[in-house]
Amino acid sequence: MQVTFNPKDTNTFASASLDRTIKIWNLGSPDPNFTLDAHQKGVNCVDYFTGGDKPYLITGSDDHTAKVWDYQTKSCVQTLEGHTHNVSAVCFHPDLPIIITGSEDGTVRIWHATTYRLENTLNYGLERVWAIGYMKGSRRIVIGYDEGTIMVKIGREVPVASMDNSGKIIWAKQNEIQTVNIKSVGADFEGTDGERLPLAVKELGTCDLYPQSLKHNPNGRFVVVCGDGEYIIYTALAWRNRSFGSALECVWSADGEYAVRESTSKIKIFSKSFQEKRSVRPTFSAERIFGGTLLAMCSNDFICFYDWAECRLIRRIDVTVKNLYWADSGDLVAIASETSFYILKYNRDVVQSYLDSGRPVDEEGVEDAFELLHETNERVRTGIWVGDCFIYNNSSWRLNYCVGGEVTTMFHLDRPMYLLGYLASQSRVYLIDKEFNVAHFLESRGMVEDALEVATDPDYRFELAIQLGKLEIAKEIAAEVQSESKWKQLGKLALSTGKVLLILY
């Protein structure tokens, strides 16, 4: 009924037959190497696992089941049950940890390739399924039916990657973990904006689960990987396991604590030393959690912010949240929905004063905890903060920045790219595409000038003024904060630009 070559040994192939068996053959012999008594009825289809770690193949049969086999031990690893008619097509996806089976019952079932759990069932009402196809490197699969064909996009395009504050990037290609260092390119590299950086990729190790998310902690020492309903925290340099457990999501606080969402009804908070501090059962179904200055828990209709120390409700906001981005200062937060985003100011002094007063907090939280500064009707794909400036790419793949409610386009991206981070030392924003190509974009002078105009933090305003060469503003800030390091920095710039008299008077 079907033959397929072994991708790891192209001299061997497998054949599926209605005599209920699978035979493994070698090109140099007319006799089979061995035979698997595979099913109770005829075998319709067979496919090999393309990954390097498992000598597996999968078969589909008229007995309504699919079976995963170890062709080295000649044993059945797992039986996949659930179809109500003949299984007519099977495949291991080459890039995602899934098995796909199609049946004459009209359904396509998607199974986890490690746990063998049924993840999803597709039924498009096109009668019997006869074929399933894929293209390596793509998230699209094509399904052939009696009544036509359909193409489906599965998984997500955003690469599983994270960059720390020093420019070290870690990403996951299936279970393989790799790292690159942006600073290895060298300051003399003069690539144009959007050009792929010639980075040297190093193998860091492997992960015991299939990574669906990966994120550095604030100081860059640790990386948390989530997937398969579990999390593992590794050291970023040596990739050593430091902690693990059950989790659908794991997020970091601004000072290195973390929270895990074990289910929609249970969240645990851990200290920086990986010790459990608190277990929380929200009064609503928590569909997402977000880290940062405050711990955020989302339902489908609203978001609730809590303090990390005692998990007290700070504020409930009625908005459907797609993503959340905190500024490093902890005073600004961007809430992204499907069609727009909101910039809010967090009034931490107001919150602390209210909590210290001992007054009760109702189900809405502290009324003046947040102040809405701006609302922009634009979809955010990914975003980062640079000081008080929010940089994001939108649905049209334009790289924009928002300062003081004004949105300006920095670049028009020629392909889908996702924000990784920003390096102040190089004044560059870094993005990555789904092929793990990294590109940089120089921040525009207009963006820096706008940021200087609205920024309130003196340290940040000083850096912006130095960057723009506005020595008078930098001098005012240095005099205000009385910082010796700032006077030294200002003096060096004044000497290099011949404006020594400016800082003497």
Report on the structure:
Residues 434-501 form the COPA/B TPR domain. This is Coatomer beta' subunit. Keywords: Cytoplasm, Cytoplasmic vesicle, ER-Golgi transport, Golgi apparatus, Membrane, Protein transport, Repeat, Transport, WD repeat. Oligomeric complex that consists of at least the alpha, beta, beta', gamma, delta, epsilon and zeta subunits. The protein is mostly beta strands and 505 residues long. Among the domains are: 2-153, Methylamine Dehydrogenase, Chain H (7 Propeller), CATH 2.130.10; 458-504, no CATH class. It contains 6 helices and 42 strands. The protein has a 4-stranded antiparallel beta sheet, with no helix packed on it. Strands 5-6-7-8 form a 4-stranded antiparallel beta sheet, with no helix packed on it. The protein has a 4-stranded antiparallel beta sheet with strand order 9-10-11-12, with no helix packed on it. α2 packs antiparallel against α3 (458-468), α3 runs antiparallel to α4 (471-481) and α4 (471-481) packs antiparallel against α5. The longest helix has 14 residues, at 484-497. It is elongated and about 90 Å long.
List the helices and strands and how they pair.
Layout: E1 2-6, E2 9-16, E3 21-26, E4 34-37, E5 43-48, E6 56-61, E7 65-70, E8 75-81, E9 87-92, E10 98-103, E11 107-112, E12 118-123, E13 129-134, E14 140-145, E15 148-153, E16 161-163, E17 168-173, E18 176-181, E19 202-206, E20 213-216, E21 222-227, E22 230-235, E23 241-246, E24 249-252, E25 258-263, E26 266-270, E27 276-280, E28 288-290, E29 295-298, E30 303-306, E31 313-317, E32 323-326, E33 332-336, E34 341-346, H1 348-356, E35 370-376, E36 382-386, E37 389-393, E38 398-403, E39 406-412, E40 418-423, E41 428-432, E42 438-442, H2 445-454, H3 458-468, H4 471-481, H5 484-497, H6 500-504
Antiparallel strand pairs: 1-2, 2-3, 3-4, 5-6, 6-7, 7-8, 9-10, 10-11, 11-12, 13-14, 14-15, 16-17, 17-18, 18-19, 20-21, 21-22, 22-23, 24-25, 25-26, 26-27, 28-29, 29-30, 30-31, 32-33, 33-34, 34-35, 36-37, 37-38, 38-39, 40-41, 41-42
Helix pairs in contact: 2-3, 3-4, 4-5
